[in-house]
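Subject: complex prediction, re-run

Hi both,

The earlier run crashed halfway through, so I resubmitted it with identical inputs.
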Amino acid sequence: MTERYDVLVVGAGPAGLSAARAAAGHGARVGLIDAQARGGGQVWRHDVVRAEASSVPRALTRVIARARVEFLAQTQVVAAARGILLVEDTRGARSLQTAAVILATGARELVLPFPGWTLPGVTGAGGLQALAKQGWPLAGKRVVIAGSGPLLLAAAASARSHGAQVLGIHEQASAAAVLRFAGGLWRWPSKASQALRLRAQLAGIRYRCSSVVLRALGDDRVRAIELDGPGGRQQTECDQLAVGYGLLPNLELPQALGCDLENDGAHPQVRTDDRQCTSVTGVFAAGEICGIGGRDAAVVEGAIAGHAAVGEVSALQALQRRRQHQRAFAAHLQRYFALDSRVLALAEPETLVCRCEDVPLHALDGHLDARSAKLATRCGMGACQGRICGSALAAMGRFPRGDLRPPFFPARLATLGDTNFPADFNPGGVSP
Amino acid sequence: MSGERVSVQVNGIAVQIVSGSSVAAAIAWLGVPSRRSVSGQWRAPLCGMGVCFECRVSIDGVAQQRACMVPVREGMQVRTDD
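This time it finished cleanly. Structure:
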């Protein structure tokens, strides 16, 4: 069964919602695909416990409810080729044909290995926020937040609003860097007001700079952590540790479609022109996959991509000024929250790096690329397909992540059998 | 907590939870991990957003489902590793 669209948008976060609205506004038939049950992505994730908390702005939901946008929830792209996506949802697999694709696959957290990071109770920082918004119980729990970047503040505020006792926020960047970051925020008033709001919500919680979690301690779950900061090393008992070292673009789909990447910042990102066109005709990209720049950059880039994907270019010039302004924030963020070399060297030889296949760091010694490591140790061959360990090892300077072949997510056998997979979907590239 | 509640079975034990919650949250209310790793370690969710696959459980007889990506449904049967 094949359905046809004018535009398929992958990812229903700020960039994807904005793109769908722009494209549908010109009368295009738009499909908006998301792996979650609800739209909003990570930053606008619906809070099931505190429904009044941040959610998708009504301006975006209203337009999408009215316009010609079909929301394909709990749907994952399993394989992709030019003009065609193989998707799987709760009912089964389908091939979707489209004239244009807008990739808005967003970001995930960089979680770096350290001793004890596999213990239950250790999550990402944004990870804890996502779990809490989906009903994960935090009331009365002693929570430590650590890692790097403004997301730590948002994670701490979420944890507190769900009843957690936040013991402290530990930022790896120096106090001088954090102050310079905050001092430059006046150029982005919405960010500055967000920072002030978070500061008020976090009153009384310690914020420590140059402070790093060295290890998590516990038997069957985390019971305590060891911190290293300006005051020396100390152990703290806790029930949850939420640690994230910033965000990484989700590049699996753009890479599979053959989009060129660039290394503008700390991590690879999709290269686009000022109309959000990637190097592949008919494939557009917007938001975090073009470089971590936050919600406002994503919204404006999504709009540009949505207009451009249906060939409407008259609205673009005004949007491009806004885009440049928001992209300057991305550079600002990256500059002051650059990772200190010590957080890249927390893993000990026995620390498991690949959590799916339980491969310790020492097993990777002597392997110069992901393929060699994979063949010898199974590192990156588990269910997450190297999304966690591959990104961590690249950040740690070991080797870049290997190429991903379809299926991009573990898929049902029926999905692979019912369709022309893999005939339609050349592994690792675009069909001729 | 507010909102309508649904009841799911986690390892045969009834858990009442706010509608719209994830299966991962229902498991956390019971206080058990989600899976055992290939070398036998207990694991629980790491990323909360469908990336890490640490929260894999069996839902209504279908194995290897990511608990953080599936909203609870009345009467759902969830089984973690034991």
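Confidence is low (pLDDT under 50) at residues 427-432 of chain A.

- K.
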